[in-house]
Design a protein that fits this description.
The protein has 427 residues and is of the alpha/beta class. Helix content is 27%, strand content 25%. Bound molecules: ligand LLP. Ligand LLP binds next to α10 and α11.
Length: 427
């Protein structure tokens, strides 16, 4: 459930805020997030896990805007980070370092050091070399590194190949049958403290079975580790819960939470999870304006002022995201169109052969389910300024990232000193 709804006049609102009114002030393209929806999603997740001692570590990569992190921190969330940049964001947003886990396939020494100095809860280690780096950096920093190994349970999450991570063939995690040996190494090191076991099998998972199978495999390992005298405080099941983009019927978090709790609570194990999409995905829309239309005889194109640089998911994964008019016109005829951006790539599309009520120049469109992996994957490709981000809250709103200034595009670039400089552009 989210808080983007049409009013009786057919005007799309974010909570109590009229989106055309918001656009009149902020322009397009603009991402709009709903504070009530983010809060609700966090609470649904928290409630789903109430049968077991748990910590939700929101996956920062899904939507890393400081205000989003600040809101989630205020609700008690921890954070799953994958870079020192994300660590900085979490700290700047008021996150508690003791609730931070550090994931990722390859961490640099300086990132490991920064994490240890900040006092994070756990580093999720993905390979033998990374474990060795953690030990060496920990020795230099003078703080033992709290570690879990991310094990690869070889479970098929049944999702898009780019976001499936728990198969034997993927680059992620430590192969299951090598994990025990590496845990022994970690346990024997004076610079490492084993604190848990971690896994993450993929993203946009809609069936509960792969997640529960993965936990069962992880628990086999936990039994062995405990039998060898290691103290395992937590099991981290990663993120991955799917959402409804179109007609998916994802397993409710409650069902998964209960299955997790039934396995973990009797063993006194704490559960960590790293949800991203399920919290942020349907808490956001991306607003864009129609620049014009054209037809090539076979296809009709609706050209918008947003493009693949603003939201790359349709281009990169052929992801389907709903596109709706901001002002609904029930009399408008339905047509089949491609919704495309202005970028010089055929891959720059948001929808292909999509039935849509007719929209003309200047109409506003909203791309739904854009709160996760939307703005945070955006770029300046084609020297396009990045979109604005706004948080609505009841009938008020806050610009949480203004649209990028034209001058910011190359403010950090430098001309060669021996060639003539250019001129500024009043534009
Ligand atoms: N934990 C780890 C270790 C991860 O790699 C990820 C996502 C998460 C947690 C959060 O997963 P979630 O709950 O959001 O499914 N850009 C892609 C998704 C990439 C996911 C990468 N890892 C997309 O737009 O679909």
């Amino acid at each position: 459930m989210d808080h983007f709804r049409y009013d009786e006049a057919g005007v799309l609102h974010g909570e109590g805020v009229s989106l055309p009114a918001l656009v009149a002030a902020v322009g397009t393209p603009t991402y709009v997030y709903s504070r009530a929806t983010l809060t609700r999603h966090f609470k649904v997740m928290d409630d789903a896990l109430s049968g077991v001692d748990h910590l939700i570590c929101y996956s920062v990569k899904a939507n890393s805007n400081l205000a989003v992190l600040q809101l989630l921190a205020s609700l008690g969330s921890g954070f799953d980070i994958v870079s020192v940049g994300e660590l900085h964001r979490v700290l700047a947003a008021g996150g508690d370092p003791d609730k931070v886990v550090f994931s990722g396939v390859g961490k640099r020494d300086d990132e490991i050091a920064a994490a240890l100095r900040a006092g994070i809860h756990c580093i999720n280690v993905e390979s033998a070399w990374e474990l060795a780096r953690c030990a060496e950096v920990a020795a230099a920093v003078g703080v033992p590194a709290p570690v879990s190994l991310r094990v690869n349970p070889d479970v098929d999450p049944k999702t898009h190949e780019y976001i499936a991570t728990g198969l034997r063939t993927s680059k992620f995690g430590v192969p299951f049958d090598e994990a025990l040996e590496l845990y022994r190494t970690a346990h024997a090191s004076p610079h490492l403290t084993v604190v848990g076991v971690d896994c993450h099998i993929g993203s946009q998972i809609v069936e509960p079975t792969p997640l529960i199978d993965a936990l069962d495999r992880v628990l086999e390992l936990v039994d062995t580790l405990q039998a060898e005298g290691m103290t395992i405080g937590h099991v981290d099941m990663g993120g991955g819960l799917g959402i409804t983009y179109k007609d998916e019927r994802p397993a409710p978090p409650k069902a998964i939470g209960e299955a997790y709790a039934a396995r973990l609570a009797p063993r006194g194990l704490k559960l960590l999870v790293e949800p991203g999409r399920v919290i942020a995905g349907n808490a956001g829309v991306m607003l864009m304006r129609v620049l014009g239309r054209k037809s090539n005889g076979e296809r009709t194109f609706v050209i918008t002022d947003a493009a693949m640089n603003d939201n790359i998911r349709p281009s990169l994964y052929r992801a389907w995201q709903d596109i709706v008019p901001v002002q609904r016109d029930l009399d408008a005829p339905e047509e089949v169109v491609d919704v495309v951006g202005p970028i010089c790539e055929s891959g720059d599309f948001f929808a292909q052969e999509r039935p849509l009520a007719r929209v003309d120049r200047d109409a506003l469109l909203a791309m739904r389910s854009a709160g996760a992996y939307g703005f945070c994957m955006s770029s300046n490709y084609n020297s396009r300024q990045r979109a604005a981000e706004v948080m609505v809250d009841g009938d008020t709103w806050t610009v949480i990232r203004p649209r990028e200034e034209l001058t910011a595009l190359f403010a950090s670039e430098r001309l060669l000193p021996d060639l003539p400089a250019g001129r500024s552009f009043e534009g």
